[in-house]
């Protein structure tokens, strides 16, 4: 009797212990239902062809890798010294940042104005939304050629206006023009995202503003603009970061000129790589990486915070 | 405009469509018109591009020349052969990863997710990509190009899809699990079909960039045999033969842009809803 009583007590004690041990030994539920190997191929490809090259940049930019040497040797900061001394480093940073800033400004400005103009869901508006989306569908290189034909000194704009302005020949203003083209090319995408943001604003909120006697301007600045914060975050971030990676439009309109005044990072890399100076191009690529990180992190953090405050 | 309460609504009712028409005509109409008329002109008229109608119409021979001299068919095929596999891989690999990232919660998973979407912001290191592909024997090959595009756009698809899957109730999966379905079956039968709207988004986003990409194609594929359509256009436009031959360049532009426009027109509604639903979250 005593034995059995002890035994039962023991088994009773053991049961929960066994239970917990079983739970510890068993794979967690999540691992069974959503196993890691579903994510593995994506992680492998992404790491292999995106992260690894970025890491390699941290090595090859400190070497003499080029088409002139059969082997690759470590040379320290030589490449960075070269690009700093010939002025191309600072110029590329300044040009790219200015380009990104202006392109983001134009793309978002145009996109927001178009979204406000085409907000109501009429057939007329739907048609013109598609019209303004067309430039997004045309390749950036083709866009560049179209605007080269428009803005050439012998081009269509001068022929229509009867002027003889070298639109693409100014070392100050051509960069602004090229960013305007960039804004033109991508305004349709921003427009769609702003339209979605506008549609997401509750109707009774606008109704309440109208009842309180707010005019269209007041409604825009006090209700709609704050409610658009998530769309602004997305649009500004993608536009800024995306345009730092620009190449096609610049290459097709100016090729980096005049006098390298529109030579953004990617144009420089393309030119230097073509000359066989691979390590120097890699150094520039590393600088671009660092500049993007330096811009992106405060930007994303700041815009997120702004969203929460509004 | 907003001085009186009745003013804006009346002025706006007629002013807005007029403004839209004006903007559309100036901003989109003029460039498209230039492309259309120039692509139908003989060389002598096209050398100084303007908005006049062609004095002599010859669209047929221009388009024929652009197609034959510009190796259009080869370029089209080359583009298809790298863009389509890239899109498929981006979608399938991205969906698998997004499923895991959306459903599992641990520090490791969030870290892996953060790493995988870092490509949304970080620039691809194009110079060392060339180096790596050379060492792997993939330089100047289509598989190399596909791997690079897939790596570049996976972040976008993982980001959009993870957000989307998080909004799908788990109960749908659990019901199937109780019926004894394995993860792979649940993924194929339940998760993938539910992802359809976001797949449309990811497809159009990747198509938008990859179909018109020239920068990365330059480094990975180079010119020659495997040149894609935009690469061909660049070669055509920079070649001595074509210098200032705007009529042929624009004939090329028209033919090259048609597939994207067609894709957009067919899937317009889905594309628009897809792009916007993914972005504003």
From TrEMBL, chain A:
Gene3D superfamilies, sorted: MetI-like
GO cellular component term, pick one: plasma membrane
Principal subcellular localisation of the protein: membrane
Keyword Cell membrane found: yes
Topology in membrane: Multi-pass membrane protein
One of the GO biological process terms: transmembrane transport
CDD domains according to UniProt: TM_PBP2 (cd06261)
Localization terms from the record: Cell membrane
Residues that span the membrane, as ranges: 36-60, 97-118, 130-151, 171-196, 277-301
Source organism, top-level taxon: Bacteria
Residue ranges annotated for the ABC transmembrane type-1 domain, each copy included: 93-299
Keywords: Cell membrane, Membrane, Transmembrane, Transmembrane helix, Transport
Family according to the record: Belongs to the binding-protein-dependent transport system permease family.
Name this polypeptide is given: Sugar ABC transporter permease
Lineage of producing organism: Bacteria, Bacillati, Actinomycetota, Actinomycetes, Kitasatosporales
TrEMBL record, chain B:
Compartments, as annotated in UniProt: Cell membrane
Domain (ABC transmembrane type-1) ranges: 76-267
PROSITE patterns: ABC_TM1 (PS50928)
Coiled coil spans: none
PANTHER family: ABC TRANSPORTER PERMEASE PROTEIN MG189-RELATED-RELATED, SN-GLYCEROL-3-PHOSPHATE TRANSPORT SYSTEM PERMEASE PROTEIN UGPE
Entry's family note: Belongs to the binding-protein-dependent transport system permease family.
Protein name: Carbohydrate ABC transporter permease
Source organism of this protein record: Streptomyces acidicola
């Amino acid at each position: 009797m005593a034995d059995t009583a002890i035994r039962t007590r023991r088994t009773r004690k053991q049961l929960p212990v066994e239970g917990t041990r079983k739970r510890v030994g068993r794979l967690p539920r999540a691992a069974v239902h959503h196993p890691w190997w579903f994510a593995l191929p994506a992680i492998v490809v992404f790491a292999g062809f995106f992260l690894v090259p970025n890491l390699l940049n941290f090595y090859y930019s400190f070497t003499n890798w080029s088409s002139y040497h059969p082997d690759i040797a470590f040379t320290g900061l030589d490449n960075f010294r070269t690009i700093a001394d010939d002025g191309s480093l600072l110029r590329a940073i300044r040009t790219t940042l200015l380009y990104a800033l202006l392109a983001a400004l134009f793309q978002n400005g145009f996109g927001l104005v178009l979204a406000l103009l085409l907000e109501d869901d009429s057939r007329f508006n739907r048609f013109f939304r598609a019209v303004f989306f067309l430039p997004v569908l045309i390749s950036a290189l083709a866009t560049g050629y179209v605007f080269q034909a428009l803005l050439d000194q012998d081009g269509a704009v001068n022929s229509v206006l009867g002027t003889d302005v070298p639109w693409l020949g100014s070392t100050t203003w051509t960069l602004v023009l090229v960013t305007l083209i960039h804004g033109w090319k991508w305004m349709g995408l921003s427009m769609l995202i702003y339209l979605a943001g506008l549609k997401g604003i509750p109707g009774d909120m606008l109704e309440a503003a109208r009842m309180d006697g707010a005019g269209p301007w007041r409604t825009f600045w006090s209700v709609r603009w704050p409610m658009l914060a998530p769309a602004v975050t997305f649009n500004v971030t993608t536009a800024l970061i995306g345009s730092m990676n620009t190449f096609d439009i610049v290459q097709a309109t100016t090729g980096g000129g005049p006098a390298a005044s529109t030579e953004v990072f990617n144009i420089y890399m393309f030119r230097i790589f073509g000359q066989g100076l691979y390590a120097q191009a890699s150094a520039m690529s590393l600088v671009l990486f660092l500049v993007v990180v330096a811009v992106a992190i405060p930007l994303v953090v700041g815009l997120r915070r702004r969203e929460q405050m509004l | 405009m907003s001085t009186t309460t009745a003013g804006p609504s009346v002025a706006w009712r007629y002013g807005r469509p007029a403004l839209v028409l004006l903007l559309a005509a100036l901003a989109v109409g003029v460039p498209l018109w230039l492309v259309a008329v120039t692509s139908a002109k003989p060389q002598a008229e096209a050398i100084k591009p303007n908005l006049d109608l062609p004095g002599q119409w010859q669209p047929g021979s221009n388009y024929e020349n652009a197609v034959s001299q510009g190796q259009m068919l080869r370029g089209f095929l080359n583009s298809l052969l790298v863009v389509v596999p890239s899109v498929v891989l981006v979608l399938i690999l991205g969906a698998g990863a997004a499923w895991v990232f959306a459903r599992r919660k641990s520090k490791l998973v969030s870290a892996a997710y953060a790493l995988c979407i870092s490509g949304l912001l970080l620039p691809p290191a194009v110079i060392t990509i060339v180096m790596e592909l050379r060492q792997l024997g993939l330089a100047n090959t289509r598989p190399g190009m596909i791997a690079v595009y897939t790596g570049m756009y996976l972040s976008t698809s993982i980001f959009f899809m993870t957000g989307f899957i998080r909004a799908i109730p788990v109960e749908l999966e659990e019901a199937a699990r109780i019926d004894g379905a394995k993860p792979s079956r649940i993924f194929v039968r339940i998760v993938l079909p539910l992802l359809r709207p976001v797949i449309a988004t990811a497809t159009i986003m990747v198509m938008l960039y990859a179909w018109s990409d020239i920068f990365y194609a330059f480094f990975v594929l180079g010119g020659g045999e495997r040149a894609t359509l935009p690469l061909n256009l660049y070669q055509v436009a920079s070649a001595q033969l074509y210098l200032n031959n705007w009529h042929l360049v624009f004939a090329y532009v028209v033919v090259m842009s048609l597939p994207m426009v067609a894709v957009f027109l067919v899937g317009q509604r889905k594309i628009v809803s897809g792009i916007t639903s993914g972005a504003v979250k």
